[in-house]
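USER: I would love a firmer grasp of how sequence relates to backbone shape in proteins. This is the protein in question:
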Amino acid sequence: MTLKVDIRKLSFINEMAKVGTNGVADNLSKLTGEDARMEVTKTNFIDVQDIKSQLDAGKRVGVRVRLLDEPHGHILILFPEASAKKITALMLRDVVDDMDNVSGKMARSAVEEMGNMMASGFIDGWADVLGRAIDTAAPQLVYAPAGDIVVRTAGLGGDDLALFFDSNLTVPSYQIEAEIYAFPDLEEFVAMVNGLETHTA
């Protein structure tokens, strides 16, 4: 398959990252009633074998969502543990007075709901750019060192490259860090990007 020409032209991919993260921010704004913002500071393709060396050893909590339609693959939304605690407080603020009484199950459910909401906003953004619906499987909660989660997810698709978005997420009353990784089927993804280029030429 031919990847190197289109996959290194990041203009459309950057646009998809921007639209996807705008979808994330919109969903969070609706949830919080505040003006949430998510900015992608870097978009890059990373060799799966090099991922672990580029990530800190800290554990992450988040969700893995499988795309049932083209470009197939998976989307990962990961939060450092400190951010996961803030998410729990955000998601449960209207139902729990004392966060010390929150069970592990409730906390996991809150993070899973937030991760799924973010993934849905991101995927909806992609669907808008690509002009097609993208259905998803139920989200899977993940909790492990970041490198282990990313390498495991990359292995599910069999590709050597992962699409990585370095992003900053800001909700005025909460400082939440989030990482987004996309693992589309690269052959399908490149064909779709190439189609966008042809369409907009």
Residues 12 and 109 are 34 Å apart (CA to CA). The radius of gyration is 17 Å.
